[in-house]
Amino acid sequence: MLVQATILSAVKPRTVDAATTPGNSGAPSAVPAQPAQPRPEAQATQVQAVVREAESLEQTLQGAQEAAEAAGANLQFTIDKDSGKTIVKVVDSQTSEVIRQIPSEELLALARSMSKTEGLLISQKA
Fold it and tell me: Cβ neighbours of residue 26 under 8 Å, at least 6 residues apart?
């Protein structure tokens, strides 16, 4: 699997802290301790879990798209540039009219205005 091979090739070997080296007096080292690197086996397992989850999501989305097409509609997935939220639109395949949008435009506008208000409150305190 390409993704797995790429991630595993980027794993660095573990470094040993001088304070825990056998024969060391246990005195603190001048070199700061580095966080332990996850084991390659654990990383491989995590990568495999993410890949399985992505494949499952793709199958679910494909099923939803097929169901929408059977009803004469299309599903469009976009990301709102202001909020970063995923937007799903159900669009009539013949007229290209938006039948439903989740979340609605009103809710997105409310979230934008709340975020602007929050920014004003924070800048006024400073």
Answer: 19
Three-state SS annotation for the chain? CHHHHHHHHCCCCCCCCHHHCCCCCCCCCCCCCCCCCCCHHHHHHHHHHHHHHHHHHHHHHHHHHHHHHHCCEEEEEEECCCCCCEEEEEEECCCCCEEEEECCHHHHHHHHHHHHHHHHHHHHHC
Beta pairing partners, 89: 76, 101
Q: How many whole angstroms separate alpha carbon 119 and alpha carbon 115?
A: 6
Task: Write down the mean pLDDT value for the chain.
Answer: 73
Q: How far apart are CA 126 and CA 114, in angstroms?
A: 19
- Residue 73 bridge partners (DSSP): 92
Instruction: Give the pTM.
Output: 0.48
Is residue 88 within 8 Å of residue 79, measured between CB atoms? no
pLDDT digits (tens, 9 = 90+) for 30-83: 555 666 666 778 888 888 899 899 888 888 888 888 888 888 888 888 888 877
